[in-house]
Amino acid sequence: MKKRYRTLEFKEYGDERGNLVVAEGDGKDIPFSIKRAFYIYGSDSEVVRGKHANRLTKFVLINVAGSSDVMVDDGIHKEIIKLDKPRMALFLDTMVWKEMYHFSSDSVLMCLASEHYMESEYIRDYDEFLKEVKKSSI
Predict the structure, then answer these.
(1) Sign of dihedral through CA atoms 1, 5, 54, 69?
(2) How would you write the chain as a 3-class SS string?
(3) Active-site residue among 52, 77, 102, 116?
(4) Could you tell me the pLDDT band of residue 1, with boundaries at 50, 70 and 90?
(5) Mean pLDDT in the chain?
(6) How many percent of the chain have pLDDT more than 70?
(7) Radius of gyration over alpha carbons of the chain, in Å?
């Protein structure tokens, strides 16, 4: 089975004035239309954020400053991905468990979402997530 997540690399342009990273939505660079954006900052390195999966929402995570680690688990593949370059992103399809941690002191983790917030589509219990993944793969 194919992984339900992957890293993305955006175009970066730079000159003596600095650098510019471009990420366009609607399938060009971001593989969906962006309906929500939020960012996480000021988290200590020991703090774990996320700890959930989503039935409907897809995400793209970008550390626009600093760094963080993201543990991703689609029920079959599990890996830790370090986000530490503003031109690098992590695409998360639906039904991917995510945990973000090891935030650097200057970390700003931008999250782009395919859907508006709906509490009912969140799975916040890991065992329930595994049950739903197993049921959908039958």
Answers:
(1) positive
(2) CCCCEEEEECEEEEECCEEEEECCCCCCCCCCCCCEEEEEECCCCCCCEEEEEECCCCEEEEEEECCEEEEEECCCCEEEEEECCCCEEEEECCCCEEEEECCCCCCEEEEEECCCCCHHHEECCHHHHHHHHHHHCC
(3) 52
(4) confident
(5) 95
(6) 99
(7) 15
Active site residue 52: yes
C-alpha to C-alpha distance for 32 and 24, rounded to whole angstroms: 10
Q: Are 39 and 83 in contact (CB under 8 A)?
A: no
Stated pTM of the model: 0.94
Kindly state the average pLDDT of the residues 75-95.
97
CA distance 85 to 133: 31
* pLDDT of the residue at 138: 57
Single out the residue of 42, 103, 96 nearest to residue 73, CA to CA: 96
Pull the structure tokens for residue 31. 């593989």
CA dihedral sign, ordered 9, 34, 14, 40: negative
Cβ pair 49, 28 in contact under 8 A: no
Q: Report residue 49 as tokens.
A: 């954020």
In this model, does residue 65 exceed pLDDT 70?
yes
